Amino acid sequence: MRLSKFFLPVSKEAPSDAAIVSHQLMLRTGMVRQNGAGIYTWLPLGYRVLKRIEQIVREEMNRAGAVELLMPTLQQADLWRESGRYDDYGKEMLRIKDRHDRDMLYGPTNEELITDVFRTYVKSYKQLPLNLYHQQWKFRDEVRPRFGVMRGREFLMKDAYSFDLTEDGARAAYRKMFCAYLNAFNRMGLTAVPMRADTGPIGGDLSHEFIILAETGESAVFCDKALLDLPPPGLDLDFDADLTSEVEKRTQFYAATEEMHDEAVFDALPDDRKVSARGIEVGHIFYFGTKYSKPMNAVVQGPDGQMVPVQMGSYGIGVSRLVGALIEACHDESGIVWPEAVAPFDVGLINMRVGDEACDAACKELYAAMSAAGQEVLYDDTDDRAGAKFARMDLIGLPRQITVGPRGLADGKVEVKDRKTGDKQEVSIAHMLAQLKAS
Ligand code: ATP
Ligand code: MG
User: Fold this and answer.
1) Which residues surround ligand 2, an ion (CB under 5 A)?
2) Cα-to-centroid distance, 144 and ligand 2 (Å)
3) Could you tell me whether strands 413-418 and 424-428 are parallel, antiparallel, or unpaired per DSSP bridges?
4) Looking at domain 3-336, which CATH architecture does it have?
5) Where along the chain do the CATH 3.40.50.800 domains lie?
6) For residue 354, which of 44, 72, 172, 325 sits 20 to 30 Å off, Cα-Cα?
7) In sequence order, which ranges of 238-342 are alpha helices (DSSP H)?
8) Is the CB of residue 135 less than 8 Å from the CB of residue 13?
9) pTM above 0.85, yes or no
């Protein structure tokens, strides 16, 4: 992508109304534009990051055996009357009437809708286990939308729903999601800590929140340092195997949010293992049994011929919140430092002297070779000052920067900078092109 043809409305000043660094940086780099309280337009740079996160989540859901579909944002109130949640949900639910005066709502979550899909098509235990998910916009009329996309009113969520014949089956489904979540967050470059959580309006008796530690997090969290040091289950995990030990390996350590915190248990930990921090909730999983299937009559026939309500769980990831959470975890004084897996572009190519024949030709050749090798390149072909170009590249935080200038070119070299370490190296163009061809 040529920067001169891209849409990157970067601004120099830090916006005065943004309280936390991720919100400031998202506005400064032109990733989002706020259209109303908690409602955002995803501008091209931000949209690229959102799509990459969405894709990692998709791949890890699929690997764990979940199946993707897409439910609508607008739902009929009738389904929510069946579950009893239409009146319970309160003011966070945006209620709408259509032209026929029918009660509708913009979905804050989808348990009712997916249960309706399930009961329409699935009648026998032979079709189980089943896990269906989608990534769709939600609306919650939050009292205090704040911190940019971290607490929006309209936000993108991945929500998965598992269906099993037995409680044991449902608990196994829960463990799959537990492991898949750790892998997904790890691929994004994040350490997410699973913590026992309250079940809230979703209901149920087993629940974990996945928390990223960050100073600006909304909740106080407490955990054992040993848990932070554990590697994720890994992408070669066999999801058909019994994952009890994978989960217990982690749940044996103390980890709790404020609501679930037990001072006495935490105090008993050795001092060098006590982590008391703030955290951002990026995922939340629930096992709630027959809370929806019973009132909505989602029943399946078991092997003995009896009809029983299906056992369910639901599993959310805050896809749009993750964009902010990632920046909270990955930035420095010059701007964002994207982990490679979620960066909007892999490489920033800077032409120091646009219009100079040799510089233009070298950039063109490198751009073509990197693109052919599958790298996404943002090519700064503008005639801005060198200093402004460097500052902008640092601000938007692409993992690698390649600078092409007349001085280096005289020796057939370009400068390659690692955004994270700041490490700079002179690299021969011929060598780079040969490597790209081989890759
Ligand atoms: P919170 O406690 O932060 O209000 P929640 O517990 O109400 O979140 P869930 O119903 O568990 O949220 O939703 C699943 C995930 O969706 C959350 O873990 C979070 O990452 C994300 N999420 C929830 N509310 C918002 C919001 N207002 N803006 C952005 N993301 C959100
Ligand atoms: Mg939650």
Assistant:
1) 284
2) 16
3) antiparallel
4) 2-Layer Sandwich (3.30)
5) 345-438
6) 44
7) 244-251, 263-267, 319-329
8) no
9) yes
Q: Which two tokens stand for residue 89?
A: 């949900």
CA distances from 15 to 27, 39, 99, 220, 331 (A): 7, 17, 41, 27, 17
Q: For residue 156, give the 3-state DSSP assignment.
A: strand
Q: Which atom of ligand 1 is nearest to the CA of 322?
A: 20
Q: Over 80: is that where the pLDDT of 427 sits?
A: yes
Q: Which ligand is nearest to the CA of 281?
A: 1
Among 12-26, 96-110, 146-160, 424-438, whose mean pLDDT is lowest? Answer: 12-26
CA of 149 relative to ligand 2 center, distance in Å? 16
Cβ within 8 Å of residue 27, ≥6 positions away: 11, 15, 18, 34, 148
- Which of 25-31's residues contact partners 24+ apart within 8 Å by CB, and which partners? 25/327, 25/331, 25/335, 25/336, 25/395, 26/148, 26/149, 26/323, 26/324, 26/327, 27/148, 28/335, 28/395, 29/335, 29/336, 29/395, 29/396, 29/397, 31/323
The mean pLDDT of 269-286, rounded to a whole number, is 96
Domain with CATH 3.30.930.10 in the chain: 3-336
Q: Return the number of other C-beta atoms located less than 10 Å from residue 15's C-beta.
A: 14
pLDDT of 201 > 90? The answer is no
Rounded to the nearest 5 percent, the helix, strand and coil shares of the chain are: 40, 30, 35
CATH number of the 345-438 domain: 3.40.50.800
Atom 21 of ligand 1: nearest residue by CA position: 318
Q: Is 284 in the pocket of ligand 1 (CB under 6 A)?
A: yes
Q: What is the mean pLDDT of residues 52-78?
A: 98
Distance CA 364, CA 383 (A): 16
DSSP letters spanning 396-432: HT-SEEEEE-HHHHHTTEEEEEETTT--EEEEEHHHH
